[in-house]
Amino acid sequence: MTLFQPATFLNYLLSVDYAAAAGNTLWISLASLVLGLCVGLILAMAREVGFPPLNALVSVYLWLFRGTPALLQIVFAFNVLPAFGVVLPGFACAVLALGLNEGAYMAEIMRSGIRAVGQDQRDAAQALGLRKWQMMRLIVLPQAFRIVIPPIGNQFIGMLKLSALVSVIGVHELLLVADQSASSNFRYLEALSAAAVYYLVLTNLFMAVQNRIEWALSPSSSERGDKVARRPLLSPT
Amino acid sequence: MFRRTLALSISLFLLPAVAMAEELQLVEPGKLTWGSSPTFTPFEFMRDGKPMGFDVDLMDALSKRINLSSNMMGMEFKGVIPALLGNRIDVGVSGLYVTAERQQVADFIPYVIVGNQIVVQKGNPKHISGRDGLCGFKVAVPVNTAFEASTKQVSAECTAAGKPAIDILSLPGSNNVALALSQGRVDGALNSTATIAAMMGETPDVYELAGPAFDANTKVGIALRKDSTALKAQLEQALQAVVKDGTYASLLKKWNLPSTASAF
Lengths: 237, 264
Description:
The structure holds 2 protein chains of 2 kinds. By secondary structure, chain A is an all-alpha fold. Chain A has 9 helices and no strands.
């Protein structure tokens, strides 16, 4: 048995099974990210309202979802929810568990973003006669969004890899397919290496997207066509 | 001179014994370390935090025969053969079906014969007739098992005959499969006759058989690395002794395996 068979590796890499599995991994990660973003935004906004019972509710949510392993949440959604009459397919269980889990982390990221927009900005908004929700939508959130892009990119890359956990509930993502393809010929090195290549490509893809978004949101790019910022680096606020 | 001759003759005399002890290179000295996934009733499963089952008892008996202590190492089923090939365990004993693919990488000592069967929810709500009536249904199997391979083959037969393929749900172990079936997540499951019998014995009124057993001469074996010839010879001898003294037959009985399950 030679240690590494390049032909087997390429065979896996170019197989329809792997491509489909990579698609599933990407799809699960994206769907969970979107769900996580929505949940996180709602939780962070709920905190901003400053209504104590709402605050307590958010705290319980964070405590529950950050305090238990993601794998437990996935298995819970798959094996325990049916006891309450909710039989979701594996894919939906995966997105539900990962998305709700992600939401807890996103909430904290969003909160840090919202908090990072200084009181002076809010005062200025009030001076202009904006209502509270207008201030949130027009002044705070756009600036907060720019601040939270790097940590969200981080979370997403984490999510891409966390999605490997859902192989235990039979969702055909990269790790399960790699494991299964190795079970017939036991060429684990080739099978897992091929999966690793897909993960790396996906991660790279996302880093590129993140860079692109950061560039698009950076203050200098608001002056279209300009590659160099005309404003001084430290503009007076 | 005399001393030298004496030393030489003594060492020559001792040589076979020394060689034999050296030949058995074990992962942990004095222990027969066997990898297993305790999710496959009645062969190996956990009860009250302890592994038990036919394989556990058999490995105890075999280890005793070759003066080693039985050391089960629990792992996921899909990890058993890789662990064997990676020298992490001495043998793999996890209700492993002897398949052509596995024989390419490992040697086997067959010790039990089983068949496969289809199990459905009580009342057979989808009216599945058996192996050939699975086309288009959702079927759960443990991942990387012969059951999974077998279901894929049935599915290929379905599509070749112009029928819809089987929607296969691959889960970590047979315990997960049993749960998925009882929850109605799948329409049926394919597993060993012995495992299905144990499932139905443990939780009556939940499952029902669909159709007769098939692939009735499937061998279950102890997996060894191809270079573990010395260990293989010793285990084969021990197995024969255990069959001869009646331990084997009593174990079949203890774990409700029919006499047709005997490989001897």
